């Protein structure tokens, strides 16, 4: 019975593992700094339409904002790449160890009808637990 929890555990583990590796690769302070610089630059853009002084400050802040956008873009690419890679690898592991889980309910388009009764593919369990874990850890992966 505990064997059926493997797909759920791999779903949570994939998000947690991606979070740990992401926090090691991308410094949190750098991303927070980049988000703050980007916010200030957007405020300066709004003010620049009204005054020349703000337009001058906007030109001076442009290189820093460009660097901040680059950091934010790289962090997003690293985050998505890590999530996809770890999710795929652990999904294959879950599917190899437990191909199907017996289900007490017949769910259209999700469960498969077999002579032993309805079964749920372990990829569905892995996917749904992955989504739930991603919602739980969303604040920690800035």
TrEMBL record:
Transmembrane helix among the record's keywords? yes
Is the keyword Coiled coil assigned to this protein?
Answer: yes
Sections of the chain in a coiled coil: 34-61
Q: Which UniProt keywords apply?
A: Coiled coil, Membrane, Transmembrane, Transmembrane helix
> What stretches pass through the bilayer?
76-98, 118-137
- Kindly provide the name given to this protein in its UniProt entry: DUF106 domain-containing protein
Q: Which organism is it from?
A: Aeropyrum pernix
């Amino acid at each position: 019975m505990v064997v059926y929890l493997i797909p759920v555990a791999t779903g949570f583990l994939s998000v947690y593992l991606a979070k740990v590796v992401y926090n090691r690769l991308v410094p949190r302070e750098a991303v927070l700094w980049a988000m703050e610089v980007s916010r200030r630059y957007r405020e300066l853009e709004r003010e620049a339409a009204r005054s020349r002084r703000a337009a001058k400050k906007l030109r001076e802040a442009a290189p820093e904002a460009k660097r901040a956008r680059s950091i934010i873009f790289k962090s997003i690419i690293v985050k998505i790449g890590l999530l996809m890679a770890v999710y795929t690898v652990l999904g294959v592991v879950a599917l190899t160890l437990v191909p199907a889980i017996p289900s007490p309910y017949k769910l259209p388009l999700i469960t498969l009808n077999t002579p032993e009764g309805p079964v749920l593919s372990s990829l569905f369990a892995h996917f749904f637990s992955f989504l739930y874990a991603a919602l739980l850890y969303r604040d920690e992966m800035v």
